[in-house]
């Protein structure tokens, strides 16, 4: 594990040598860590992707700004990023229906990619299709800013009892 001093040196070197795109990515990485540290986001991933998550009308709406951090080698949003925002929206919604001592975990996620992501942001909308005593089935759609559907998905979630750690 690097010491704080070595990490500080490494960061200064990265900043000194960074091009414009790398500076955008570094800024987003640091902002994500800061947001988690200060309680503005619940997880590092929420901060890293700069997720805006809202629950309303039995739906979870999750929005992320697009940046080079999210791109694959083809310079378009990585499919795993899209799957992650889908899973996050579905998981957030499923957990909103549960008791404090319960949690929902993903047991299956099926994503159909329909178009490339481009523009300034993506919006994911998740809804619950079925809630049973032990399982839930949810669906989600992801749209880019021009309204074109980028992906559609379904997911199954198992309801578990939270354990104290």
From TrEMBL:
GO biological process: fatty acid metabolic process
EC number(s) reported in the record: 3.1.2.2
Domain annotation Thioesterase: ranges: 75-151
Subcellular location: Cell projection, Ruffle membrane; Cytoplasm; Membrane
InterPro entries registered for this protein in UniProt: HotDog_dom_sf, PAAI_dom, THEM4/THEM5_acyl-CoA_thioest, Thioestr_dom
Primary location group: membrane
Keywords on record: Apoptosis, Cell membrane, Cell projection, Cytoplasm, Fatty acid metabolism, Hydrolase, Lipid metabolism, Membrane, Transit peptide
Record flagged with keyword Zinc: no
Reaction equation(s) it catalyzes: (5Z,8Z,11Z,14Z)-eicosatetraenoyl-CoA + H2O = (5Z,8Z,11Z,14Z)-eicosatetraenoate + CoA + H(+); (9Z)-octadecenoyl-CoA + H2O = (9Z)-octadecenoate + CoA + H(+); hexadecanoyl-CoA + H2O = hexadecanoate + CoA + H(+); decanoyl-CoA + H2O = decanoate + CoA + H(+)
Annotated Gene Ontology cellular component terms: cytoplasm; membrane
Bilayer topology: Peripheral membrane protein
Enzyme superclass (EC): hydrolase
GO terms for MF: acyl-CoA hydrolase activity
UniProt key word Kinase: no
Coiled coil regions, renumbered to chain: none
Protein family according to the UniProt entry: Belongs to the THEM4/THEM5 thioesterase family.
Protein name: Acyl-coenzyme A thioesterase THEM4
Species assigned in the record: Cytobacillus horneckiae
């Amino acid at each position: 594990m690097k010491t704080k001093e070595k990490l500080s040196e490494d960061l200064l070197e990265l900043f000194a040598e960074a091009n414009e795109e790398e500076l955008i990515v570094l800024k987003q990485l640091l902002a994500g860590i800061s947001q988690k540290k200060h309680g503005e986001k619940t997880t590092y991933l929420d901060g890293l992707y700069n997720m805006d998550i809202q629950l309303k009308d039995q739906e979870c709406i999750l929005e992320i700004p697009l940046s080079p951090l999210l791109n694959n080698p083809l310079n378009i949003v990585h499919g795993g990023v899209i799957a992650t925002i889908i899973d996050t929206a579905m998981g957030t919604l499923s957990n909103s229906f549960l008791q404090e001592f319960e949690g929902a975990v993903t047991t299956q996620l099926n994503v159909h990619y329909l178009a490339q992501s481009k523009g300034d942001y993506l919006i994911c909308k998740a809804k619950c299709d079925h809630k049973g005593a032990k399982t839930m089935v949810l669906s989600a759609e992801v749209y880019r800013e021009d309204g074109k559907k980028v992906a559609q998905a379904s997911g199954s979630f198992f309801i578990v009892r939270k354990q104290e750690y």
